[in-house]
């Protein structure tokens, strides 16, 4: 898990570091890392460092000096605000770096191998200074690689919006910890590959976090020799309707391919036949379950009657789609709500744009109101955990997943993990991440049930990461591969 840090915490850590280490210049540390990454990105060719008026520009100027000294290449600087970090300017001029004006930049741009963006970093407000709009567009048109220092200029560190004008990066090097804009869409789409560089800052634990593959590997409920179908977790699924028959098949597919011990389907009989045709391991009819999944494709008719008895069972529920309209004030302990932005808006009695404007805040608000875990779905998936007062971002996948039925499959995976006994925040973070990783293995317009079928491949890979044996004896996947 990686902590996502707000700007005030970064600045506080920087102050503490400066007090404790008066002889260390953090800007030089940052600049060295920028220069080193620039060398890796383009080993030769002219580099243009674009600098703004603040410390982000300072990083750029010291990186420029380093690049001139270390390599025998041409480095030029464009100070877009007229003024720039004074010591940085002196340092750059000392090594003979040429400072350009707008006209010169326009003329030389086609021959630039790399642009380093030091216009704004964590001090940046949303939006690019007007006099560089043309430049951002030209970099895009000419396909010039851009290395952003800390934050691509135009983005604001704690904001997930992507404004119309942004200097989109090929890579971003940020310091100490990622910021929300690096990970949350659509802002993240302007950051390219993000590298977090250690410059020695100590940061406190954050209540906003990003899942890592290793977390999925560690937390996944791997079966053991003591496991049987019951102990792996029996999941009850009541989903689908005549209007939405696929909403019965898809969640069950998600649940089966993520390893449910047993599934009891209690939806309409006709849909049970459909499911059995595809997935004969599913059982039909009621019985003891460890968790329920409800709501996908219920449509409105009869929804409340279906929901009532299941709510009374008291086991944890995954509550999706139509069932979200009938939430009681108190939910069974350990339950999980899985709304998309529109459904969350309806739950909170606000508009969809209000949710889209503040997904972290609104997911958390619903989690607090119902005292339960909320998984807000979308391009970035947020898991709000009101018990530990934090929000976790799931691992993200390709946008191909944005299709009807993906949410149904995701609900099924959540159900498997709740039935396995995982607490809802973990179940949600794992399910959303694994679906994204499966989609990354099938990058294209594969239907959601085909993406679900890639989950076992993802798990085999993760088992290797967690060093989980897959055969009797001591053989781990790694040792098998070595045969
Ligand atoms: N805080 C830290 O830990 C460290 C910070 N460093 C660098 O310092 C940066 C932060 O420096 P600053 O606080 O000076 O902030 P920035 O350099 O990010 O930006 C501040 C300046 O840009 C202007 N500005 C902001 N948004 C604008 C916009 N949309 N249009 C036009 N002008 C805009 C502001 O008015 C201000 O003059 C970091 O991002 C990083 O690059 C590094 O030197 C290493 C240590
Ligand atoms: N831009 C996107 N990139 C990746 N995944 C997305 C994107 N938009 C939506 N998704 C995924 O698509 C699913 C949509 O869920 P939902 O709207 O409930 O679909 P349905 O109800 O049709 O199954 C979610 O699982 C979400 O993760």
TrEMBL record:
SUPFAM superfamilies: Ribokinase-like (SSF53613), YjeF N-terminal domain-like (SSF64153). InterPro entries: CARKD (IPR000631), Nnr (IPR030677), Ribokinase-like (IPR029056), YjeF_N_dom (IPR004443), YjeF_N_dom_sf (IPR036652). CDD domains: YXKO-related. It comes from Brooklawnia propionicigenes. GO terms for biological process: metabolite repair; nicotinamide nucleotide metabolic process. This is ADP-dependent (S)-NAD(P)H-hydrate dehydratase. Residues 211-462 form the YjeF C-terminal domain. PROSITE patterns: YJEF_C_3, YJEF_N. Binds 1 potassium ion per subunit. Its EC number is 4.2.1.136. Keywords: ATP-binding, Isomerase, Lyase, Metal-binding, Multifunctional enzyme, NAD, NADP, Nucleotide-binding, Potassium. Homotetramer. (6S)-NADPHX binds at residues 247, 297, 340, 408. Its cofactor is K(+); Mg(2+). The keyword Lyase applies. It catalyses: (6S)-NADPHX + ADP = AMP + phosphate + NADPH + H(+); (6R)-NADPHX = (6S)-NADPHX; (6S)-NADHX + ADP = AMP + phosphate + NADH + H(+); (6R)-NADHX = (6S)-NADHX. Residues 10-207 form the YjeF N-terminal domain. Catalyzes the dehydration of the S-form of NAD(P)HX at the expense of ADP, which is converted to AMP. Together with NAD(P)HX epimerase, which catalyzes the epimerization of the S- and R-forms, the enzyme allows the repair of both epimers of NAD(P)HX, a damaged form of NAD(P)H that is a result of enzymatic or heat-dependent hydration. AMP binds at residue 407. Pfam families: Carb_kinase, YjeF_N. GO terms for molecular function: ADP-dependent NAD(P)H-hydrate dehydratase activity; ATP binding; metal ion binding; NAD(P)HX epimerase activity. Belongs to the NnrD/CARKD family. In the C-terminal section; belongs to the NnrD/CARKD family.
